[in-house]
Amino acid sequence: MSSKNDSRENILSAATRLFHIQGYHATGLNQILKESGAPKGSLYYHFPNGKEQLAIEAVNMMARLIEGELREHFSLFDDPVQCIQYHIQFIAKKFDDIENLKSLPVGLMAAETSLFSEPLRTACLSAFEGWEKLYCDKLIQQGYEDTFAKEISTVINSMIEGAITRSLANKNGAPLYLAAESIQLLLKK
Amino acid sequence: MSSKNDSRENILSAATRLFHIQGYHATGLNQILKESGAPKGSLYYHFPNGKEQLAIEAVNMMARLIEGELREHFSLFDDPVQCIQYHIQFIAKKFDDIENLKSLPVGLMAAETSLFSEPLRTACLSAFEGWEKLYCDKLIQQGYEDTFAKEISTVINSMIEGAITRSLANKNGAPLYLAAESIQLLLKK
DNA sequence: GTCTATAAGCCGATAGAC
DNA sequence: GTCTATCGGCTTATAGAC
């Protein structure tokens, strides 16, 4: 891999972390550059459309990252309830060491930018829809009815994003653990 | 009411609206002052601790506002499922006219500021806990077991906040309507 | 491709006249 | 209590040397 890609990737991975933890408006380009070690000139070389483009690519990167985690967690059990509970508890564990929180899904970015930037909104929407597709497929595969699977997937994804916010306010993962418990109520056959 | 209180209330109500729709960092004091018609000097007279104090009072105001709506909706039916569904659909309707969205709960503020300002985090937490107390009391009153009522109240509140974010990304209230439907699964006796 | 210097504007906050 | 002028710092973005 050439140094060109290193620089680009350093910027993008710092941006992905900071945007998703601090939010879009609280994160300055200077902070991203400082953490990535790259100078400002190369940011605008690699991301000519500036902050908005960087944020869109950061959301896409986070989307793929979470998608990978979901695929992994879905391969652990046949039962969707167990898989989804495992996934939520996996997120909840990050709150045990809240000072070193280093990645969260796109909920904050979506809430901040959906009324502010149409391209950013659609990037967040694509992330949500991609994850929900994975929930849905797993549910259908295990015998749930198609329409129910699709609808409950959106509900589950919403619940997870909300429980993350609630856990942030709580300064611990308790609300996420409660959400995990309630998955069996939502998916009771 | 004296003009002193008018000025203070104008600033606070503009701040409440803007903070909860745009977020803390995206909302400038200049914008709040412009919308409220007050000059900058009087903002710092009424809110000597500046932006953070203003945001805390805005969260408290929104907490009381939603609390009033919840009390009203809880008086409509005996069945908690019906009450909560009514409340969620009440929020969902605001997304029919998304351009004129004028108030949302504190989810965005909580997600943005919980790792940023401890006083703001606790203000958001108090808002959440106040609403959840109302859910909990209604559930206990209708025969649900105490521990279950308390836990499911946090889950319901989380789900609502998450469904709001999901509806913002969707640019319509569909995810909130799905969340409303799923309340009966969470509260099935 | 990389890097620096700088522009132009907005931010929150303050001082001080009235 | 109200209002204005202004400060220092930060923001995104750009111009241009290397």
TrEMBL record, chains A, B:
One of its GO terms (molecular function) is DNA binding. PROSITE patterns: HTH_TETR_2. Keywords: DNA-binding, Transcription, Transcription regulation. InterPro entries: Homeodomain-like_sf (IPR009057), HTH_TetR (IPR001647), Tet_transcr_reg_TetR-rel_C_sf (IPR036271), YxaF_TetR_C (IPR054156). Gene3D superfamilies: Tetracycline Repressor, domain 2. Residues 5-65 form the HTH tetR-type domain. It comes from the Bacteria. Residues 28-47 bind DNA. It holds the Pfam family TetR_C_13_2. This is TetR/AcrR family transcriptional regulator. It comes from Cytobacillus horneckiae.
